[in-house]
Amino acid sequence: MKRIFPLVLAFCALAVFSFAQAGKTPQFSTYRAAVEKKTAKAIDFRNSPGASGFRTRLREAINAGEVNFAGRYIITGWGCGTGCSQMAIIDAKTGRVYMPSQLAGVAAWFGSLDDDYEVYTYKKDSRLLIVKGTPGPISDAESEPKSGTYFFEWRANRLRLIRFMPEKRSPNA
Q1: 3-state DSSP assignment of residue 79
Q2: Residue 5: inside a domain, yes or no?
Q3: Number of domains in the chain
Q4: Is the pLDDT of residue 139 over 70?
């Protein structure tokens, strides 16, 4: 009985700590990435499915851009209609392009939002990507993503949803 009590106490402390962390907004400093210098001279279209349709924009980004995300990547984007944007993530070291479904056709709700509203927020020394609006499909199970703030971590060349905060002012929240 004496051995079980410390285990139960430790488990309860861990549970309380976990619940406290779940309510926090993800911070860029939690997802640090060492910034590298780019080395790729061109886009690797052969190993980048879907990228060939955006050749001009991707070439412009790798030629003119410098690393702006997760230590070695270049995020670039283009419009896809009113209140819609699409993004790609270029590995500045290899030239390979990643086009996550979450960044395909992000719709921003511009109702009565502040002037400083940013659809995408990211930093060159962090793997955290914040998307405000309605992203592309999050999963096959979710047929219609809701509008709000999505916190994604870029890991193993994929975006992983960390947290979602619904937008109270949007019509489809």
Answers
A1: strand
A2: no
A3: 1
A4: no
